[in-house]
């Protein structure tokens, strides 16, 4: 049996503004944050974006490494959720500002969840 590597998540006090802003410099990643802002945990297989699965995996890893999301593995399935409380505690108002601007400008609106219309 092959052991699965456990994902590393930065502690809340390790989350840096530069890493968060860097992770949010891509419309796919902003779209993923918009989807995850519903407060629910989503399986990776539910997420829909106009990129290859390997590229989607890369985007999810960038968000996780920056401290924006938390990934949980259950068997062979992976689940992801937004670390909204950690981000709000570290950078009050930042997430709301990003989500508001993304909504106004429809950044990442082409990202969604299976069986649901994309954001926007």
UniProtKB/TrEMBL annotation:
InterPro entries: ArsR-like_HTH (IPR011991), HTH_ArsR_DNA-bd_dom (IPR001845), WH-like_DNA-bd_sf (IPR036388), WH_DNA-bd_sf (IPR036390). It comes from the Bacteria. SMART domains: HTH_ARSR. Residues 9-102 form the HTH arsR-type domain. Gene3D superfamilies: Winged helix-like DNA-binding domain superfamily/Winged helix DNA-binding domain. One of its GO terms (molecular function) is DNA-binding transcription factor activity. This is Transcriptional regulator. It comes from Salinispora arenicola.
């Amino acid at each position: 049996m092959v052991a699965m590597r456990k994902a590393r998540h930065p502690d809340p006090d390790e989350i840096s503004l530069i890493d968060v802003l860097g992770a949010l410099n891509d419309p796919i990643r902003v779209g993923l944050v918009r989807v995850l802002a519903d407060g629910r945990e989503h399986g990776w297989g539910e997420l829909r974006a106009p990129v290859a699965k390997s590229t989607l995996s890369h985007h999810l890893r960038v968000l996780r490494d920056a401290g924006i999301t938390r990934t949980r593995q259950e068997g062979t399935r992976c689940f992801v959720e937004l670390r909204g409380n950690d981000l709000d505690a570290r950078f009050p108002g930042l997430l709301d500002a990003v989500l508001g601007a993304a909504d106004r400008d429809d950044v990442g609106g082409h990202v969604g969840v299976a069986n649901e219309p994309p954001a926007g």
